Amino acid sequence: MSSRPALAEPQTAEAAGTQAKARTGRRPLRLPRPGYLVSKLAAAVVSFAVTLVIGFSLFNLMPADPVRTMTRGRPVSEAELLRLRVQLGLDKPVWERFLDFVNDTLHGNLGYSWEYQQSVASLTMDRLGPTLLLMGTSFAISVVLGLWLGLRSGWRAGSLFDRITSATALTLWSVPTFWLGMILLIVFSVGVGPFHGFLPTAGMSDPTLPQTGMTHYLDVAKHLILPALTMVLVVYAQYVTIMRSSIIEEIGSPYLLTARAKGLMDAAVRRKHALPNALLPSVTMIFMHLGTLISGAVTVEAIFSWPGLGDLTFAALKIPDLPLLQGTFIVFSASVIIMNLLADLAYRFLDPRVRDQ
Amino acid sequence: MTAAQTTVAALPTRFAGARRFARAFRGRPSGVAGLVILVAFSLLALAAPLFIGDDELDVTKVDGPLLAPPSAHYPLGTDQSGRSVLLLLIWGSRESLRIGVIATVLTVVFGSAVGIIAGHYGGFVGRILMQVTDWFIALPSLPLAISLAAVLGQGSMSITIAIAVTSWTATARLVRAQTLAVEARPFVERARVLGAGDRQIMVKQVLPNVMPLILVSSTLTVAGSLLSEATLTFLGLGNPADVTWGEMLHEAFFGGAFTAGAWWFLLPPGLAILAVVLAFTLTGRAVEYVLDPRMEKK
After folding, report:
1. How far apart, in whole angstroms, are the C-alpha atoms of residue B205 and residue A324?
2. Transmembrane residues, as ranges (chain B) (predicted)?
3. How far is B73 from chain A (nearest CA, A)?
């Protein structure tokens, strides 16, 4: 390795390295080269394979005896233990079990839940929709909010607005997500003192209302407010920090001086010139932080009984239902890998300097 | 010139750096505030056994009212078993801080070792190590930690391991980058020419220069570890017999205090976590700022 890598933001460094090749003027949009696409896809596939190995070792090699874990706390006969072992395939050698596991996973068979007596694949598929709804909503809101606040506070670093924004973001980042959820739940659903709670306490919809049409959508939206708000409040801080530091990196650039010298208003310089350049590293970093969003989803869904994957993980954890935990782990990992792949491709597509390489 | 000033001036030059550091650190009020909070919590945690005993913590021995709001005798009220929330809060700081600190030590030692080795050897070994690091970064940390803790069984031990396994990657990347920067400097070249071996270069030349960065990153890691610890214990992965802030919140939410509207049992543990996490972050950022040579010029 010849060049010295940057400490914090590798994406910025990559962009800076190609800055010399940057040309002005519009170019026709071009898709990334197929070679690049193939290599990124291959990396994602390898990454998923590693996830499978880790998942398998975690759930099949580490517990001393899965059958004991499964029957914890209730009396079982030797014959039943043996029957369970054969049923779970534990009598086969490890490599054969691993190949079976990989084969099953690739065919969409994620095992069989002990607790729900149902296939893990169908359980997780049922829960995917609510999680995507919750995560998508909170992601969109916190990205817009975080980027806007980061842009404004980075543009006037050290101002009162910047200090208040940064202090608030830092404080909210230090709050445990589940605790914030509990507090919001008490204040807005249960009610404090003379203030009556008006938002639903749990679930995704009111079973007494019709499950279709406009009333249903409004009902779901009402149930969505608190869980989404909890996640936004904890997550947006990261986006503020990322955007703030990207805009501070850009602020001394000569092209901004040029824009000002042309006589552009301050707001126009910020929006038309600084923002697009600061957005590039931010977008990649934001996608890379998606894992945190998933972590937040687990506790938030548990608190608000939101019927998603996080709530399912929590239910599996209480038993503990190992096949179900393994299934949710694989689904979560796969979604992070897919998101990272999309982020990579989006970055290539968005940045003309990288796109034309 | 007073006597005190003479002593300070007479200190050997090797402390000059530390003095300059302390002076610069005092110029960051938020960092000082963070440090004060940390010292206060640590003293409280260390002194707790002096005034809290089994009589106050054992559910079979306490005789307070159940889930009573704050009063003169119980400044923060009582929990479902009649224990004083204030005493639980103080006692909880011990286990919470202990898990946070041990998990951080594991994280930092392992992460730094991987980072320095990957940075020093480069080539094949370095690429393999960084590839493994990237794979771990791609894994969703909370689901992984949950699975690990669930497989290893309830208790502080498995929570500590789960936190370390999911957080070493950040340290490894940071330390590797810094190692590469340090190894490019002439004094490492000089040591190599004088016949220093790989181990000597890594331990004697690189490590002391990477150390400040490792310290900064570990204060930030403690903050993250404390949050993870609280989250995992809250989800029910802790040992129910231990008193930690996460365990208190678990009992408050799932044990009926929440539905009873017992805010005095819900607020204090959360605020304590918030205060300590914020304090670690503020201290870490202040140290980072002071150590950053680009900032010093201003």
Report:
1. 49
2. 32-52, 97-121, 213-237
3. 24
Q: Which residues, in sequence order, are bridge partners of residue A195? A: A192
To the question of pTM greater than 0.90 for the whole model, the response is no
| Residue B54, number of CB atoms within 10 A of its CB | 9
- C-alpha separations of B34 from A168, A180, B281 in Å: 16, 22, 8
Half-sphere exposure of B176 (CA within 13 A, CB side): 25
* Residues in B 204-223 with any Cβ partner in A closer than 8 A: 223
Buried b (16+ CB within 10 A) or exposed e, B43-53: eebeebeeebe
Number of other residues whose CB lies within 10 A of the CB of residue A147: 24
- Alpha carbon of residue A263 to chain centroid: 42
Cβ-nearest to A58 among B151, B237, B277: B151
Helix, strand, coil share of chain A (percent; to 5): 75, 0, 25
Dihedral pair phi/psi, residue A30, rounded to 5°: -125, 140
User: In 3D, which of B161, B130, B136 has the Cα closest to residue B228?
Assistant: B161
Contacts of B76 (CB under 8 A, 6+ apart): B70, B84, B85, B86, B89, B264, B268
pLDDT at A74: 65
Kindly report the three-state secondary structure assignment for every residue of B175-191: HHHHHHHHHCCHHHHHH
Helix extents (H) in A21-119: 34-56, 66-70, 78-88, 94-106
- Alpha helices by DSSP H, chain B: 3-10, 16-26, 29-51, 54-57, 85-121, 123-138, 141-152, 156-183, 186-193, 198-200, 207-232, 245-254, 263-291, 293-296
Establish if B155 touches chain A: CB-CB under 8 angstroms. no
Put residue A72 in one of left, alpha, beta given phi > 0 → left and psi -120 to 50 → alpha: beta
Q: Where are the domains of chain A?
A: 123-355
Residue-wise pLDDT tens digits, A303-327 = 999 999 999 999 988 877 888 888 8
CA-to-CA dists, residue A292 to A62, A72, A236, A302, angstroms: 26, 32, 11, 16
Q: What is the spatial distance between Cα A322 and Cα A65, in angstroms, rounded to a whole number?
A: 12
State the DSSP H helix or E strand holding residue A191, giving kind and residue range, or none if neither.
strand A191-192
The phi-psi region of residue A170 (left if phi > 0; otherwise alpha if psi is between -120 and 50; otherwise beta) is: alpha
Prediction ipTM score: 0.85
Buried b (16+ CB within 10 A) or exposed e, B157-186: ebbbbbbbbbbbbbbbbbbbbbbbbbbeee
Asked if the Cβ–Cβ distance from B235 to A328 is below 8 Å, we say no
Q: Domain B23-47+78-297: give its CATH code.
A: 1.10.3720.10
**First CA to last CA distance, chain B:** 30
Considering only CA atoms, which of A287, A286, A309 is closest in space to residue A297?
A309
Q: How confident is the model at residue B230 (pLDDT cuts 50, 70, 90)?
A: very high
Interchain contact, B234 vs A4, CB within 8 Å: no
In this structure, the strands spanning A195-196 and A191-192 are antiparallel
